[in-house]
Hints:
Blueprint lengths: L1 H4 L2 H10 L14 H11 L9 H11 L3 H14 L5 H8 L8 H13 L4 H10 L9 H12 L3 H10 L1 H6 L2 H16 L2 H10 L2 H4 L2 H4 L1 H9 L4 H10 L2 H4 L5 H11 L8 H9 L3 H13 L4 H10 L8 H15 L3 H6 L8 H17 L9 H5 L2 H9 L8 H6 L6
Helix pairs in contact: 2-3, 5-6, 9-12, 13-17, 17-20, 19-20
Amino acid sequence: MLRRSLPEAGSFFRRLLGRGSLEGGPAAGATAPFRHFVEQLVGGAAPISRAPSTLASASAERGTGGSDQASLTVHFLRHSCGLEDADAAKAAERLHLRSTKNARAVLALLRDTLGMPPASVARLVAAYPAVLSSLTLGAKLDFYLRELGLSPAELRRFLLASPNRFLTAGLDTRLRPNLSLLRNLLGTEENVLAAVKQSMELIYDNLEIVLLPKLQVLRDHGVTEEILVKLVTTHPKALVHRSTRFDEGLAAMKDLGVSPDSGIFPYTFGVFAKMYQSKWDRRMQNYFSLGWTEEQVRRAFVRHPYCMTVSEDKVKKCMQFVAEKLGWNPDYLASCPTILSFSHEKRVLPRYRVLDILVSRGVIKNGIRMSHLTMSEKKFKEKYVDGYHEDIPQVLEAYGARTVA
Length: 405
């Protein structure tokens, strides 16, 4: 009835919404429900243009609501953050942008201040979309870079590893108090930075709860302040990580005969306490399968705790090589287990080739010894490569062109 009695209504409403208007643009204030009402009112008229690009621009500047807000969020995630369609849709379920102003400022900080490449930005936003809503990102980046002393590359790695903890830790309620505590405990900025690089929990967690009580227990067991500093700077996860076997570690050190005031304590305790029991058992069984006794494994661990961090395959490869080429047995390796941590391709094999040539030429009289493999790179090169390459040029090829000065 209204359509027949007011034929000019369709033209009027179209001009109101933007079609055929004298200015050629849509009415910015028209809402989706109002558009739907007008479409039903004017009936058979052609669909009303929504001019999406203009609407999106206006929405980004003044904020949106409902489905327009969701569309803005997805559009921004795809085109400004580089997310794939599926990732953008998933991230939009946890993020609702009313405006892109702050989100664009966040992207500028990530790209310009941190030097984060586009792929990493997309990865971060997909994992933690709330980063785009952060109002404190700039201040926190300044804290980590200037006050703590991390490099942009280090900070990128930590942010990607744990964006939630990075963004939710309070600057004045957690980050700065922890930094002050660590400075008092560790004495130097170098020690603080070394410790934090090993475990960001030292910055994120409540240290008065997770760290200080354990340090007091260690003091009560006779651990000196010097050893405590070394433990915190080299193996802080043994103290603050949720999987730490702190109590078991103290008992194990006593069983192994490791004195709490000895220089090896922070390393033996640190390696043991932060390793899951299942992994420890698997490493022990690997040594047993290669002919080691429990006493030999314990002796090796006390001398070189990192022998328990070497993968099973690497230990097998090393044992097979030294047994076949050098005739060394587990008891000999247990007395000097550092060789287990060396790179086979970059250290053990090149040195063996050089030494084998020198043994065959009679230069080395008593065969290859452990000291040949454990001496410093500089000393080995000067003594066995530079010292003989003129008379025995084969040592250069055996050691590799990379070692030639």
